[in-house]
Amino acid sequence: MFDVPSAMSLDLNSILNDWPHENGNIKVRKIAGLDGREKLQLRVDLGVLQMEMTGRPDGQRPHNCESLLEYHQKRAARAEEKGEAYELTSEQCAELQQEGIQYYHRYLSLFQINDFAGVVRDTQRNLDLFTFVTEHTDRDELSWTLQQFRPYVLMMNTRAKASILLGQGKFAEAVAEIERGRDAIGDFFQDSNFPELVSKSSEIAFLNEWLEEVKAKRPLSKLEIMQREMETAITKELYERAAELRDAIKLLKAKDR
Predict the structure, then answer these.
(1) In angstroms, rounded to a whole number, what is the distance separating the alpha carbons of residues 39 and 241?
(2) Where are the domains of the chain?
């Protein structure tokens, strides 16, 4: 019954031993699949999770749709066209949550390999999932089962978007993106009637800390350099130089309008 030729062994130990798990470290790699497409592998303590790079991470197409979420979105749209309500059952919510975990594993893995565009895609997908479930169930406990993760997913979405901007040298835009993500998390807690969690949120604390780091590393613009030079000139009582800089700053601001 269990007689399997050695050449066809299903034992994964050879793979796992060559790629050991390390507590506290997220280990990710891309491999070439037998179908010729790239796959993403995440090492976990009991083995390896293998995911598709696009589409549903497990490669399945439920009801011939990319995902269960897309399937239910289409059904909800058809019901709306007929003027009918579309309500999810508790079992459907559980299935959608399980699917969301697949996307969580993938965006966590993509972040480790700096595929920030993929992280933005998958985190936004899960944010859309949370919203969809909330809109299509009147049971608060089912909605909160997913919505409780919104602060974390918003943080990861923000980190990915800002990382793309920083890679392009767009520091001001990155700062604005971090502030926008931080404020969105705060708004979520306020809207959820948990304003006390704003000061306790590890996600907000992380984004605030990162925001200060980005601001400290951001290169000064030409205008900022001139303004600082003017302040120095005033401090040293070099008023003629300060006046020249003041006029130059006015011209530069006028050009930027």
Answers:
(1) 61
(2) 149-219, 222-256
